[in-house]
Write a structure and sequence with these properties.
Blueprint lengths: L1 H6 L15 H20 L5 H5 L1 H11 L5 E15 L16 E4 L9 E7 L6 E7 L5 E8 L6 E6 L15 E17 L1 H34 L2 H4 L3 H19 L2 H12 L3 H25 L3 H9 L4 H35 L7 H10 L3 H29 L1
Antiparallel strand pairs: 1-7, 2-3, 3-6, 4-5, 4-7
Helix pairs in contact: 4-13, 5-9, 5-11, 5-13, 7-9, 8-9, 9-11, 10-11, 11-13, 12-13
């Protein structure tokens, strides 16, 4: 019996469970699912809206590919005729036309009825718009038209129920039909939009440049006060260090957009408010970068020059500055690049630059003009990125 027990093979050790089968991992996975499930609910993510909302963004995406940069001079032809919405009220008398003519099938027509409008004498093969004009002169577009080879068109519209004015009486029943036909003539030239955007993009670049310059002038001396290895040597220096670092942290936590709103109220709309907002935020951002670069320098030269009995200013002059000039230049150029992009958003709250006109174009649904501003911003940011990369490569 003892021999049988002695020769029995040893039992194999239990295999550890795989890491993905451990209780700790399963608990972590459950917590992760719970966190992301709650985050999905809080952020109201609705993927079907990406498909449903595509209709609204399609006009802008389409016009993004054809910005309003080049244009030709537009010739315009207009013709109008008076109509009435009430058989008891006669249409007003207009001067006889001297050019194109439009003829509705009836000059007295009720709201909601179908009305056929014919025109003749217009520019052949041109596009135009048909407006319904109320008694106070506000036009409402009701159709797009296109003339044939003889300059004529036929369009059927639904008579709209437009504003007639309070207590307008019989005059409120008198309306007008206006047709405006436009066609390009002459050579291609830069559009008014391109001129405005070019002016504003130059303003944006210099807005960012002036804000960055203010930040460098104030940030460089503050960075020395915010460097622990230079200041934290006595109680007074330590106090200055913490006060400076606290200032950096507070100002970096306030977004330039908020600062732009404050300065817009303070000094009014325009690029000056944008310069102040970018400058104040950049002082804190560059000051922190500069001070951290000073803290990471090689302490050897500092110790060597200090051992010779040099003053603190001499230590900074001969041991610190030679080590920090290249990274300071790189940080400054990168911040200028960043400020160019930030100034676009600042313009949305009245801080000047191209963002101001971009917001106006979007609000007016002028997507081709907005596309011109977007492409200008893209080109300038790309050029700034290339420029900053070249400079950093040469100085760092």
């Amino acid at each position: 019996m003892s021999q049988q027990l002695a020769t029995a093979p040893p039992s194999a050790p239990a295999r550890p469970r795989a890491w993905f089968q451990s209780g700790r991992f399963l608990l972590f996975l459950a917590a992760l699912l719970l966190i992301y499930g709650y985050g999905w609910q809080v952020t109201k993510i609705n993927l079907p809206e990406l498909v449903k909302g595509a209709t609204f963004v399609r006009p802008f995406v389409r016009d993004l590919a054809r910005p309003d940069v080049l244009t030709r001079r537009m010739e315009i032809q207009e013709a109008q005729v008076a109509v009435s919405l009430d058989p008891a009220v006669q249409p007003e008398t207009l001067p006889p036309p001297t050019g194109p003519v439009i003829q509705p099938e009836s000059r007295v027509t009720p709201v909601g009825s179908q009305l056929t409008v014919r025109g003749s004498g217009f520019q052949p093969n041109a596009q135009g718009r048909l407006f319904w004009v109320n008694p106070i002169g506000n036009p409402s577009q009701v159709a797009l038209i296109k003339t044939d080879a003889s300059g004529a068109f036929t369009e059927t519209i639904t008579v709209p129920d437009v504003f007639r004015g309070p207590e307008a009486g019989p005059r409120g029943m008198q309306q007008r039909i206006l047709v405006r036909v436009e066609w390009p003539v002459g050579p291609l030239r830069f559009s008014n939009t391109a001129a405005i955007v070019f002016q504003k993009i130059i303003e944006t670049v210099f807005l960012a440049l002036m804000g960055t310059t203010i930040a460098v002038v104030a940030g460089v001396p503050l960075s020395f006060l915010g460097a622990r290895n230079l200041m934290a040597r006595n109680p007074l220096g330590t106090t200055i260090y913490y006060v400076t670092r606290t200032f950096f942290n507070i100002m970096r936590s306030i977004e330039p957009l908020i600062l732009a709103i404050v300065f817009t109220v303070w000094v009014g709309l325009g690029p000056f408010a944008g310069v102040l907002a970018l400058g104040l935020h950049s002082i804190a951002a560059l000051g922190k970068l500069y001070s951290e670069q000073i803290e990471s320098i090689d302490p050897g030269p500092i110790e060597a020059i200090t051992a010779t009995g040099a003053s603190p200013l001499q230590v900074v002059r001969y041991a610190v500055i030679p080590q920090i000039v290249p990274p300071f230049i790189a940080f400054t150029i990168y911040r200028w690049d960043t400020n160019v992009r930030m100034s676009t958003v600042i313009g949305f709250v009245g801080g000047g630059g191209v963002g101001f006109v971009l917001q106006q174009y979007i609000n007016l649904l002028q997507y081709r003009q907005a596309a011109t501003a977007v492409w200008a911003i893209t080109i300038v940011v790309a050029a700034m990125d290339y420029f900053s990369a070249v400079v950093r490569e040469k100085v760092v």
